[in-house]
Amino acid sequence: MSYLEYHAKSTPSGLRKILYLNWGLTLLLITVSSVGFLMLYSVAGGSFSPWVEPQVKRFALGLGVMFVVAMIPIWFWRNVSVLAYLGSLALLVAVELFGTVGMGAQRWIDIGFMRLQPSEVTKIALVMLLAAYYDWLPAEKTSRPLWVLLPVFLILLPTALVLKQPDLGTSILLMAAGGGVMFLAGVHWAYFVAVIAAGVGLVSAVFQSRGTDWQLLKDYQFRRIDTFMDPSQDPLGAGYHITQSQIALGSGGWSGRGFMQGTQSRLNFLPEKHTDFIFTTLAEEFGFIGGVTLLFIYMLIILFCIASAIAAKDRFSSLVILGIAITFFLFFAVNMSMVMGLAPVVGVPLPMVSYGGSAMLVLLGAFGIVQSAHIHRPRHSSR
Amino acid sequence: MKRNSKELDASHGKMTRRALLLGGLQLAFAGGLAARMRFLQVDQADEFRLLAEENRINIRLLPPARGQIFDRNGLIIAQNSPSYRITVVPEDAGDVEAVIDKLSSLLPLDPEDLERARTEMRRSPPFLPITLADRIGWEDISKVAVNAPALPGVTPEVGLTRVYPQLGDFAHVVGYVGPVSDYDLSKMEDPEPVLLIPRFQIGKVGFEAKREDVLRGKAGAKRVEVNATGRVMRELDRREGISGADMQLTTDAELQNYVQARLGRESAAAVVIDCEDGDIRAICSSPSFDPNLFVRGISVADYRMLTEDNYRPLSNKTVQGTYPPGSTFKMITALAALEQGVIGPEETVWCPGYLKVAGRRFHCWKRAGHGHVDLNTSLKRSCDVYYYDVAIKTGIDNISAMANKFGLGIKHDLPMSAVAQGITPTKEWKARSYGKDWLIGDTANSSIGQGFTLASPLQLAVMTARIATGRSVTPRLLKSLDGVELPSGAGDPLDVSENSLRMVRRGMYSVSNDRRGTGYRSRIIADNIRMAGKSGTSQVRNITAAERAAGVIRNEDLPWDRRDHALYVCFAPYDKPKYAVAVVVEHGGGGSRAAAPIARDVLLQALYDGTPPLEAYPKGDRSRIKAQQERLERERVKRPLGSRSSKA
């Protein structure tokens, strides 16, 4: 598809584009963010500071970014994706050199009005690049080994940089999202089976190696795994986060303890209650119903994206939308698994709800691309 | 780049299928998350709810308010005052030493307190408050409050602490409280949880310790919500404790204060007892000490000063101290002899200055002798030979039985520490204690209150009250408990003939009112009030034969602790006894000279319920007495008046 093709169809122009925005998706995003504001208000003990106010400001800024991105034709975003990818790599290197140490890892660059986490930008840039790559690659070459190895390399390069930060959560997300885009682009399923089999083999090898001469992990790393498997072994040490967050979740019960009544979060038993563990506060105060409702809204966003991708017809749009959807899905799926004790604590925020600037801005920008694809989708005049 | 649309459609179709497949997987995963949520929040909700409650709820004990102690007129003797202390939470303070430096520029901090705080800090978790300064004034508290922003982690707190506004006056009676020590806990079978509260105060000595059971009260409890670091966030509910019972003593704080001042720096004891109902109106041991020093933990220097003083300020001489009663015992010997009929009141004994008993000379205090002595003269002039003679005829067991009747050798049941029983020797007692036979000389010694015989000032006061009334007056210190009046100690008539008693009282009257009586110089001359008394001078050493040959050394020439004890017992008014008084001045010399004036002044003060008129004193003494009254008035004013006037 080319520049000409976009214009050949009757795409809306000027301010009329606003009417063609995916308003359902926009509304869902606003809803999810509002849930975030509510929970941040609650964990601050019924106060707009220190979290709600900056979060609202950043959300407003993010919405603005989303609208601006949406107004720009989707072909532009396809054409800049290589640039975005290279830019994000440069940022990752920069953060390694000049980054601010926070939470024991180099993750931020202070850019004045906010702290930028380059790994957040990387997630979207990678998805864009892969979508553009498969848009460019003729379909019959998709499963050829050489043409499979190239995107794998493109995925592993930023993954390695992120892992060095070290940010295990984000690197897993990058690999999974990249792999997802490759799968959607039509790479042969045998590759995925092979990778998954190799992964399982590696994990079992690691566990087999424990206590032998050729032990693959350090003892403390094994102990971390043990803690994840059975947090009650070390309830005041490493297992504390998991144990306390499960207590918070469980004590919420069917309908929760009521807004601002969550004892676990108000009394600081919950770790990182305004960021990674904010879901536990929600589940404690609004119970099973509240938690499932949030999950439902998230899934609606995913479904909106899938529908939009299927309707898009052009390859870049579809792949970029689906890639962003996968990234978004991975965010909340990993976060929720983590607080429910289904996955180890790796430090992935709850998208649009957790307090934090970079992730929210980048996600809204990404949804801007989704909106742009939606607005600029090919329309047949005959319709 | 142009591709044919068929190929495009094929790849798009594949992508759609895969997108739907992936979407399906995502939905399934979401379903799994929902199922997990259901498991945690619905199936296991109760268990986790319980865990959350255990996390947040803590039970804290509320120390009960200790019962207060009042005198018979409602004057406060022991009360609970709000005490302000400054605590610091090391965790909040950050640099604790810097905060302490800042704090010490605002108010003086005791280095000893700081050392204690530092030790405590090392031992306890950083979120628990540590006391930096205790019992500080309101002014200092406001200074801290104003500077709060510069003092992170520092909080002024208010609690209750025991205060004894009468200072030393009741130190020996009421005793004092102090923080529970490990030693206290080790003595208890199953200590109440409230005792484990740091710095909880319990009675250590005296009344405070003896009636700890009712004074302490019952602890309340509150349930508090704590956060993850253990800090209290809010109170959920509380059950108030039950305050300890208030107590009223029979003692008159004003009189007590006067007596304490009148004893001055002597090592002495005085007891004033109401003859009618046994109420102890004053019971003073001198020198005294400030019990408030002990409440927060006395400093080593102060404590050493108290223990190294050979006047023994810490010992309660009124009930704990036992002394040979000396001549004050002669009433008992006389009564025993009269009751046994070995001598009539008019019969006389010849006193040549000594009596030969079992080959040994027992001397009268008057070497020249008293000549013919009858009962009245024997008491009036305190002739020893008369008593040697009648005692040997009466027998020691009869004398000691009589002494027991009058409360000597009996442990009076008073809520004070270490109440002594004293000794009234019998033949059987000596065999038991020394494994030796009773000698006739022992009887001679005992007859004049020397030898084995020992009595406390309290016992002497009770004895005097019983002689004065003929009833078995029982001392009573606790007037009412929690508003309920306790039984009076008026007592039943003693099994002693009124005739004998009258003769003895008559003798005591002569002691004080006959020109030749030993207590004549310390008499009362008010028309309606006459005093009856008896002096006593008890030796604390044996006078050797060599000494006797060389001439007995004068008391004033002896070192203080070898001098005789001075005693005086008395009651008044003679015809209608109201108060009995016993005074013992340790190593004071002669009873008539050192103890009698004190006893007389105390008795008058009690009878007039305040400063007596000078007309009650012999004419020649009035100017001296006036000066003394003025001096005592000044000394008493020195005590904190504010706390004295705080009526309950």
Q: What would you note in describing this structure?
A:
The complex is a heterodimer of chains A (383) and B (648). Chain A has helices spanning 3-8, 23-43, 52-71, 74-79, 81-98, 118-136, 145-163, 168-185, 189-209, 219-229, 240-252, 263-266, 278-312, 315-339, 357-375, and strands at 100-102, 105-110, 115-116. Chain A is an all-alpha fold and 383 residues long. Chain A has a 3-stranded antiparallel beta sheet. In chain A, helix 2 packs antiparallel against helix 13. Chain B is built from 25 helices and 21 strands. In chain B, the strands form 6 sheets. In chain B, strands 2, 3, 4, 5, 10, 17 and 18 form a 7-stranded mixed beta sheet that branches. A 5-stranded antiparallel beta sheet of chain B has the order 12-11-21-20-19. Chain B has a 3-stranded antiparallel beta sheet with strand order 1-8-9. Helix content of chain B is 40%, strand content 19%. In chain B, helix 14 (330-340) crosses helix 16 and helix 14 (330-340) packs across helix 17 (396-405). In chain B, strand 2 (69-70) and strand 3 (76-88) form a beta hairpin. Among the domains of chain B are: 98-125 and 134-157, no CATH class; 253-299 and 315-644, Beta-lactamase (3-Layer(aba) Sandwich). Chain B is elongated and about 155 Å long. Chains A and B meet through helix 8, helix 11, helix 12, helix 13 and helix 14 of A and helix 1 and helix 2 of B.
